[in-house]
């Protein structure tokens, strides 16, 4: 699929969702345009500067009021809150799991005075970075997400399910279990290896995060930058599922 068509289709979905949001009198871009650019940033999977050069050089005719680079980033940060509007509704059964994201090579650990990522284990290997937890519904859509440093246990992500206020029962692996005397009432069903194989759905979504959205390794150094990227990734994932009518096949949308 041509990139122009991808941009137009994403804009149509965004504009339908943000139709009631008014444009500020002094703003150059409508919020729908800003969010569409954020979705493209998530889908392109590059650093922000190279993404801006690519967008400005090839698709300025679709965004004629595109501001300069630093202003564009500040506008994206302000529009980050709109990504919550693209999160899906929970279903009776959901799936929760964590995904490791590397921020620096382990050999570079400790070189920063205020490191954002921490050293931890993800997928049976050491990384220095963060963990991203996704709660998805039975259709594979993202319902809720959160991130923490990689040195925390998956138990810390139990609040992701608790935020749904009993609307779903999440299937999780043994990393989310707690002792009986510490049970917090969060509806997470701990599944042993080989049980409830429908949980492999979230492994498919994580493989798309790595191959399509290219977030296995990120270069962000601030909380704001990570929140921005991961929020737009979750929103873009749900938009692509809508475009593919629920099929987890995004090959036509690689740009």
TrEMBL record:
Pfam name, any one: DDE_Tnp_1_3
Domain spans labelled Transposase DDE: 90-176
Q: Which InterPro entries match?
A: Tnp_DDE_dom
Query: What protein is this chain from?
Result: Transposase IS4 family protein
Q: Which organism is it from?
A: Herpetosiphon aurantiacus (strain ATCC 23779 / DSM 785 / 114-95)
């Amino acid at each position: 699929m041509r990139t122009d068509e991808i941009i137009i289709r994403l804009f149509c979905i965004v504009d339908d969702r943000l139709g009631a949001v008014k444009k500020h009198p002094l703003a150059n871009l409508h919020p729908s345009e800003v969010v569409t650019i954020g979705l493209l940033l998530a889908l392109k999977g590059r650093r922000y500067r190279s993404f801006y050069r690519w967008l400005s050089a090839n698709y300025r005719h679709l965004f004629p009021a595109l501001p300069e680079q630093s202003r564009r980033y500040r506008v994206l940060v302000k529009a980050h809150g709109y990504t919550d509007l693209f999160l899906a509704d929970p279903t009776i059964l959901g799936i929760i799991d964590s995904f490791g994201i590397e921020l620096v090579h382990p050999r570079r650990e400790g070189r920063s005075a205020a490191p954002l990522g921490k050293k931890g284990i993800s997928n049976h290997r050491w990384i220095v970075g963060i963990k991203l937890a996704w709660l998805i519904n039975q259709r594979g859509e993202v319902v809720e997400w959160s991130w923490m440093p990689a040195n925390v246990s998956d138990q810390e992500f139990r609040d992701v399910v608790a935020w749904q206020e009993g609307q779903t029962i999440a299937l999780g692996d043994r990393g989310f279990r707690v002792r009986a005397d510490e049970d917090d009432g969060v509806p997470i069903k701990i599944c042993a290896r080989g049980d409830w194989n429908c949980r492999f759905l979230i492994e498919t979504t994580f493989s798309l995060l790595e191959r399509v959205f290219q977030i296995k390794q990120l270069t962000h150094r601030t909380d704001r930058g990570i929140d921005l990227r991961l929020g737009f990734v979750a929103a873009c994932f749900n938009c692509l599922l809508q475009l593919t009518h629920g099929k987890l096949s995004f090959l036509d949308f690689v740009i």
